[in-house]
Amino acid sequence: MEKRFTNPKALGIAVGFLVPPMLVENHDDINLIGDDLRLMFYIVAGFTSVLVVLVLFFFKAAPPTPPSAAQEATKTPNPLQSSPFLHSIKRLMLNRNYVLLLISYGMNVGVFYAISTLLNQIVLTHYPGHEVDAGRIGVCIVFAGMLGSVACGIVLDKTHRFKETTLAVYIFTMIGMWIYTFTLSVGHIAVVYVTSALLGFFMTGYLPVGFEFAAELTYPEPEGTSTGLLNAAAQVFGITFTMLYSELLNTNGDIVANVTMAVMLLVGSVVTAVIRSDLRRQAAQNPNPTRSNQNAIQSTIAKCQVIWESVECN
After folding, report:
1. Would you say residue 285 has pLDDT above 80?
2. Which pLDDT band, with edges at 50, 70 and 90, does 312 fall under?
3. pTM of the model
4. What residues contact residue 18 under an 8 Å CB cut-off, 6+ apart?
5. Cα distances (angstroms) measured from residue 186 to each of 83, 193, 258
6. Where does the Major facilitator superfamily (MFS) profile domain lie (predicted)?
7. d(Cα 150, Cα 205) in Å, to the nearest integer?
8. What pLDDT does residue 72 have?
C-alpha cells in the first residue's frame, strides 16, 4: 500500500509567514525597514545556497526500490513513459477528467494564494498593530493544513476513494471560507486564529490530495508532467485571483472580496463533482482477477484458433 504524507512545501510557506514579521519591523523610518529587508534577503540567499549544495551532492535520482506496485510497473518498457514530452501533454489535455481537475485544483490553490498574499493587509484592517499576529495566523493556516494532509492521507489509504475525498475536502474548504469571511470583524483576534485554522485544515490539506487524484486519473503518464501542469494552473489562477482579490479588497472591502473567493470555491466544488472516478493507477496496482481470467480465456481461444487453422491448411 502506498504511503501518503503531508506536502513538505507547506513547511516552507509556514516559515514564510512566521519569520518576515519578526525580521522586518514596522519602523517609522523607511531606511530601517530597508535594512531589515536586506538582512532577510541575505538570510534567504544563504539558506537556499546551502540547499542547492545539498541537492547537488546528496540527493539521489530515485529510491533504491519502487514505492508501489504501480511504480514497479512503470519500470517495464512502456511507450507512454518514453514518448516525447509534447505527446504526453497532448494526451493529458485530451483527458477530460484531468482537465476538470486542472481547473478545480487551480481555483482552490489560487484562492489560497490570494488569501495568503493579502492576509497581512486583511488582518491589519480589522486589528491595527497586529503584524506579528498576521504572520502567526498564516502559520496556523499552514500547520492546520499539514494536519489535514495527514488526515486525508489516512482516509485515502483506508478507503481508496479519491474523488469522494477530494470533493469532501473541497466542500469543507468552501464552508470554511464562508465562516472565515463573516468572523473577521467580530473584534476578537482569537476567533480569527480558530477560523483561519479551520480554513487551512481543508484548503492547504487539499494540495496533496489533488496531486494523488491527478496521478490516478493520468496513469501511466509521468507523474512529473501531470503534477507540473497542476502547479502551472495553480500559478495562473493564483496570479489572477490575487489581482482580483486585491482590487475588490481596495475598492469594495474584505467582505465582497472574501465572498467572491467563496463563490470561486463553490464553482470549483461543482467542477470537482463532475469528474468521473477513473482510478487507473489503482487498476494497475490491484488488477481485477475476473478481467485477468477473461483475458487468459480469450488468449487461449485465439491460440486454439491459430492451431486449428494451421491444421486445416495442412
Report:
1. no
2. low
3. 0.72
4. 135, 136, 138, 139
5. 56, 12, 15
6. 1-280
7. 8
8. 57
pLDDT tens-digit map of 130-189: 877 888 888 888 888 888 888 888 888 888 888 888 999 999 999 999 999 999 888 888
Per the CB < 8 A criterion, the answer to whether 244 and 263 are in contact is: no
- Output the 3-class SS for the chain: CCCCCCCCHHHHHHHHHHHHHHHCCCCCCHHHHHHHHHHHHHHHHHHHHHHHHHHHHHCCCCCCCCCCHHHHHCCCCCHHHHCCHHHHHHHHHCCHHHHHHHHHHHHHHHHHHHHHHCHHHHHHHHCCCCHHHHHHHHHHHHHHHHHHHHHHHHHHHHHCCHHHHHHHHHHHHHHHHHHHHCCCCCCCHHHHHHHHHHHHHHHCCHHHHHHHHHHHHHCCCCHHHHHHHHHHHHHHHHHHHHHHHHHHHHHHCHHHHHHHHHHHHHHHHHHHHHCCCCCHHHHHHCCCHHHHHHHHHHHHHHHHHHHHHHHHHC
Reading the block at residue 98, the C-alpha cell is: 484531468
Q: Residue 134 has which C-alpha cell?
A: 498576521
Find how far residue 284's CA is from the centre of its chain. 23
CA 296 centroid distance within chain: 40
Q: Which residue type is seen at 110? A: G
